[in-house]
Specification:
The complex is a heterodimer. Chain A is mainly α. Chain A has five helices and no strands. Chain A has a single domain, classed as Cytochrome Bc1 Complex, Chain D, domain 2 (Orthogonal Bundle). In chain A, helix 3 runs antiparallel to helix 5. Classes of the chains: A mainly alpha, B alpha/beta.
């Protein structure tokens, strides 16, 4: 989640004017921004914000292994390995806490 | 409905619909001018990108010609009389309050060297980065007889709105025992499962409302999205109503005669009471004008940033982009809008964008309460967006009715969520 950013390559464009510096916490880990296409407060697929990291990561692991029945999450969770799932889970957990 | 600004009669100047962006931004720049990002096209892709860019602190101008967006997902239910068109109409009021400038107008050209978008009325919009989300252009130059005037007799209804309502009316007015002809184009085109959902719901309409009527589905290809789910469902639900004619059986439409209501293949003439022709497509016009479309008519992009492979500084998202294995769908456009906005903010920030992962899901209704889906997870691989191996796929072919009902309910929930997030 905390990849190093090589700023030098992009210094030229930065000179055009820059957006306020954002912390790494604001950047969703790969894949997380797609989850909210379905998951939201009030939706049949409930919001992920505010669930604990363990809750989300365990659910994803169970969907991935097939242990937990699903209409669609089995097909989505298999697109993320253990580490990637945990990063996504941690991000939603942190977002809810803010 | 839509933005509030009245346009003075005969006025040629653009109307600025949104509030002054700078004063309402949550996170104003700490120093220096904020980078300017122009977004062209206020559909699922462009509206998403504009919102996310504004949230990230950019000075965003969204250019959109229409007063309100009429969305395609679920518009097949309108055609089949199961839903009102009002449920498809999404205004721009909320976007106008999202800390961005909303300009009603049509982008007529782009000068990539000067980094400027020109509107038809002479307005020039300078940008540091440009995001094009122009959707599709229907091609009226490839299918003999199907020109822009033919769409009244033979609606395409492939951009939701008047065309959707027209096709619904024609179906409702059709005599009992009539024939509907529906044609699906070759790949690629907007919403791969769309023609088959449309066929399903029209068949449902005929079965329940028009005794002895028939639907002939002519296809310019032999295989299609969710085929393993659609075909058994058709056999079970609509055996006497829906006839599918694939390419191999002569399904490719060679010409149409709108005056005589004839759809012609190389093998037969089909006389229709109602004909819906879904023509071949290409990226929305401005993409080609900006130099972003290749000979296929679509736009090659970098899969990490969605930056055009042909014109630096311009990003292309949604239906117009060649997104590898990712289908042209509202879900894809929304997911791409978020990823592209993040990449644009990173580039403007002088940071290297991270390799993204994107999800797509297309729900389709085979009948009311009978939902199916295809899902995929995608990541950049060898310069294209490719399926993550082992992920994605279609609903199980042998699922019980209760699962189909759950998917139908999830489909509705998805629609409410995505439209709320983008336009609400």
């Amino acid at each position: 989640m905390r990849a190093a950013h090589s700023a030098s390559l992009f210094a030229v464009v930065a000179a055009l004017g820059s957006v306020p510096a954002r912390s790494d916490a604001a950047r969703p880990p790969a894949g997380a921004s797609s989850c909210t296409g379905c998951h939201a407060a009030g939706a049949a697929m409930g919001a992920l914000d505010g669930r604990t990291e363990a809750e989300i990561a365990d659910a994803l692991a169970a969907f991935r292994s097939g242990a937990r029945p699903a209409t669609i999450m089995n097909r989505i969770a298999t697109g993320f390995d253990e580490r990637e799932s945990r990063a996504v889970a941690a991000w939603f957990a942190a977002r809810g806490a803010r | 409905m839509g933005g509030a600004a009245d346009r003075a009669p005969g006025a040629t100047r653009r109307s600025v619909l949104g509030g002054a962006a700078a004063s309402v931004l949550a996170r104003p720049a700490l120093g220096g001018a904020r980078p300017r990002v122009v977004v062209v096209g206020g559909g699922f892709g462009g509206a998403t990108a504009a919102r996310e860019l504004a949230r990230g602190g950019a000075d965003v101008t969204l250019v959109e010609a229409s007063e309100a967006y009429v969305s395609c997902p679920f518009s097949n239910a309108v055609i089949a009389g199961l839903r009102g068109i009002d449920a498809q109409v999404l205004g721009y009021d909320a976007l106008g309050r999202a800390g961005l400038r909303l300009v009603r107008g049509t982008a007529s050209g782009v000068d990539p060297a000067a980094r400027r978008v020109d509107l038809g009325d002479g307005t020039a919009l300078p940008y540091d980065r440009l995001v094009l989300s122009p959707g599709i252009d229907l091609r009226f130059d490839v299918l003999p007889g199907y020109d822009a005037d033919a769409v009244t007799a033979m609606p395409h209804a492939w951009r939701a709105g008047e065309q959707t309502v027209l096709l619904a009316r024609q179906l409702a007015a059709m005599p009992e025992g009539g024939t509907v002809v529906l044609s699906a184009p070759a790949n690629p085109y907007r919403c791969p499962p769309g023609p088959y959902e449309r066929a399903s719901l029209i068949a449902h309409f005929l079965k329940t409302r028009k005794p002895r009527a028939k639907l002939i589905l002519l296809d310019a290809k032999d295989s299609f999205s969710k085929q393993k789910l659609f075909e058994p469902a058709w056999a079970a639900l609509y055996p006497d109503v829906l006839e599918y004619v694939p390419l191999a059986s002569g399904g490719q439409v060679a010409a149409v005669d709108p005056a005589a209501m004839i759809v012609r293949t190389d093998f037969a003439d089909y006389k229709a009471d109602v004909a819906c022709i879904i023509p071949p497509q290409r990226a929305g016009r401005i993409a080609a004008r900006a130099g972003c479309a290749d000979r296929s008519g679509w736009c090659p992009i970098d899969p990490v940033t969605f930056e055009s492979r042909l014109v630096p500084g311009i990003h292309v998202i949604g239906d117009a982009a060649i997104a590898g294995a990712m289908p042209k769908s509202a879900f894809s456009a929304n997911a791409q809008g978020k990823v592209c906005a993040q990449a644009v903010l990173d580039l403007l920030d002088g940071r290297e964008p991270e390799s993204p992962r994107l999800i797509n899901t297309c729900y389709s209704l085979v009948a009311p309460g009978y939902g199916i889906s295809v899902a995929g997870v995608f990541r950049p691989t060898d310069g294209l967006l490719a399926d993550v191996p082992g992920a994605g796929g279609i609903s199980p072919p042998d699922a019980p009715a209760a699962v189909r009902a759950r998917e139908a309910a999830y489909a509705e929930s998805w629609y409410r969520t995505i439209t709320g997030a983008v336009f609400g």
